[in-house]
Amino acid sequence: MDKWEIYLQALEQFEAENYDEALKILDDLKRLAPDYRKAYSLEVCIWDKLNNHIKELETLEKMLPTFDLSLPDEKIFAADALTRMARDLDALAMPEEAIKFFLTAAQTAIDNQSACLKLSGAIYSACGIENFSADDFRALYDDYKKFLNDIVPYPRKFYNHDKIRVGCLSANFNRHPVMNWSWSLINKLDKNSFRVHCYSTVDKCDEITEFLKEHVDVWREIYDLTDAEAAKIIRDDEIDILFDLAGHTADNRLRIAAYRPAPIQISGIGYINSTGLDAFDYFLSDVHCAGNASAMREYFSEKIIVLPQSHVCYEPSRTLEISEPPCLSKGYVTFGSFNQFCKMSDLILNAWKKILDLVPNSRLLLKARVFNTTDGRNFVIERLKNFGIDTTRIDMRRFTTNHLLDYFNVDIALDTFPYTGGVTTCEALYMGIPVVSLYGDRHGERFGLSMLKNVGLEMLAVDNLNDYIQRAIMLAGDWNLLNDLRKNLRGMMERSPLMDSANYVRDVQEAFKKILRDERLNGDF
CA–CA separation, 522 vs 525, rounded Å? Predict the structure, then answer.
């Protein structure tokens, strides 16, 4: 049997999702033909499906030297390999290394669209780096804009519609955390004054997608369209305000906005920082995240819309009964973090180590996709040991779709920094669990501050590491307070601006009307 026939056997097992069997066949194939790249390519796909970043990185490192970058087809495959390596590094909380690979991937890419996506990856990774300056971000934005030279923007044109047409652009019109924050924006604008168009790049539809298709005013599938084709559809729909819900997150279509299909273009909700692109006029924020707006502008190319309370409105995906704090039955406090492992910076791990040392018998429950594999679990164990953390006190749990159930085992949630939690913080609060959050000067470093202020727990949002540690210790020493919060936090949240969709929608509508009026009067077009 030749190598092609063996490869086809492995491919058949892969397509049948028999990954262990496929790997066994590939091991035989690599012994027969050590330089046969198809074997390594398929192995990478398997590790990707299994969410095994460690094994995927190892396989990619073996592949990388085999590419001949003088050949266009080889450059395509090399750019893909470099991008995968960058994503793995980011997932393993190594953002600096990830940025280097994203930048190399962008330089290797043979088309502008691909290069832009890779640079988005670099910009996203930078959000997880402490002290990444405004100038550092601008350098990445400038790199991105070099790959927009093939785009000719539409001339700016305002319309006189009876209703303001708001276009929402996203790859996440499905069961995705962004929907927990954007549901009211999409579904609850006043039908007498607004008309909502959704421009969907969703590749995996579900019941959320189907609901939106039936209930928004206009639904457009643009997944398979080029950026130019999608921009023309938005232009032909005469959208007044285009709202991008993705920013530099995965599968974004920021290049559509670069065509300037709408006279006013906004980003926010689904991404924590500036897009850095001239195509966007505004970024949706609030009085807490924006902080000192003049200082914040250093990080933004967009004007900042400062809502008076919260720039998001939380819609729970699921409602579970509230349990009593587990410390009451277990006799010790359990801290927890359900944020992605990529957000667990050196700074925050040092803080967690001190908290565990100062709260005797306490434990830390971590829940993330990285624990779905033995390799990922072992990687995290070694990293924690490097910080002097006693890993026998760490409970590492696999990511599951019913992750809210694990909050029954958590007394106090610890936020990450500089990339803070978002929907995870809302979920913890909704389950009656207080969250301790550290905040900084950048917009994405202040999400915890905004949520805690809005829910009435601003004393748990602090601006220095020592206070972060002390707030966690204070909570851990007051079990009566933990019990009271468990009983009352959901009600506090439901009565807060975080879940007040009527006032939130009113604020958004007023902001939309104001910027449309101001831009009509002052716009240079």
Answer: 9
